[in-house]
Design a protein that fits this description.
Elements: H1 3-14, H2 17-24, H3 30-43, H4 46-59, H5 65-82, H6 90-97, H7 99-103
Helix pairs in contact: 1-2, 1-3, 2-3, 3-4, 3-5, 4-5
């Protein structure tokens, strides 16, 4: 990890968003893009943050799965902040298309097994100890 990246991470942790942007503002490597995206999200510029996080996720190589996953999670958090969450995969889109069927409660046949058991007989009012 580069010292500027580490300093930007520490600045973000401390809440110094502008200080973090000073460290990674002009860099184009994936780690710097991810930190810039997080900083922009903290400043409230959500569309720019999403763009930077997408670029960072694409920039990480196949051996950096954890860093890519962190970018995807950060992008999802930005989408939730925007209330603009759309599934990323085709399978998720199919699940969403059929969501109307899955949200309805299943109707079970009324059987004797499904009925609640009767309450036990009440004890006498005197308490024995």
């Amino acid at each position: 990890m580069d010292s500027l990246i580490a300093a930007a991470g520490r600045a973000l942790t401390a809440g110094d968003v502008l200080g973090a942007l000073k460290h990674v503002g002009w860099r184009e490597d994936p780690a710097a893009l991810a930190l810039r995206g997080i900083a922009m999200a903290q400043l409230g510029d959500y569309p720019r943050a999403r763009e930077l996080l997408k670029r960072a996720a694409r920039g990480f190589g196949p051996r950096e799965r954890l860093a890519r996953a962190r970018c995807v999670v950060a992008e999802a958090e930005v989408a939730l902040a925007l209330r603009d969450f759309v599934p990323r995969t085709a399978a998720a889109g199919r699940r969403r298309a059929g969501a109307g069927r899955t949200w309805r409660p299943r109707q079970r046949p009324a059987r004797a097994v499904d009925r609640p058991a009767p309450a036990p007989a009440a004890r006498s009012s005197r308490c024995r100890t």
